[in-house]
Amino acid sequence: MLKTILSIAGKPGLYKLISNGKNMLIVESLNAEKKRFPAYGNEKIISLADIAIYTDNDEVPLPEVLEAIKEKENNGLIAINPKKAKTAELFDFLGGVLPEFDRERVYSNDIKKLISWYNILIENGITDFKVEEVEEGEQSEESAEAAE
Asked: Which of 35, 64, 90, 129 suits a disulfide with 111, CB 3.0-4.6 Å?
């Protein structure tokens, strides 16, 4: 499910992939408006399934982090307000979910984004954060399509 949920640089919130066009994607906002619009190839667009959080040893895929948050919050929203939270509070929150996260490479703005994305997903009924395993041939085909 997270393969079709996108983040677009410079635009707040998350977007659902509706269809592919020539040199663009048709996306729909995950807010109350459900507004559809084209997202072009020159915009930085990334699938949530392709994002990872730095840890001391490696990187942990975002779907695993979201799944850990879901367990910690009992499938509910995160009570922290990311706009008003202090840096220490944000780091404590992520430390409770992912204790080995790299405190030098993960910034407070990253944690704010993580919290707001999680809340957006839960509010929209998207609670399946597991990424389906894709055959290697299919994956390179999808990557080629996304690059276009």
From this structure: 90
d(CA 34, CA 133): 29
User: Cα 83 to the chain's mean position, in Å?
Assistant: 18
End-to-end alpha-carbon separation of the chain, Å? 21
Choose among 29, 45, 105, 93: nearest CA to 65. Answer: 93
Q: Locate 38 and state its tokens.
A: 């084209």
- Cβ neighbours of 132 (radius 10 Å): 9
Q: Which residue has the higher pLDDT, 113 or 23?
A: 113
pLDDT tens, position by position, 54-75: 999 999 999 999 999 999 999 9
- Main-chain dihedrals φ then ψ at residue 91, nearest 5 degrees: -65, -40
Confirm if 59 and 105 have CB atoms less than 8 A apart.
Answer: no
What percentage of the chain exceeds 70 in pLDDT? 88
State the sign of the Cα–Cα–Cα–Cα dihedral 141, 64, 102, 15.
positive
pTM here is 0.84
Q: Residue 127 is encoded by which pair of tokens?
A: 């609670």
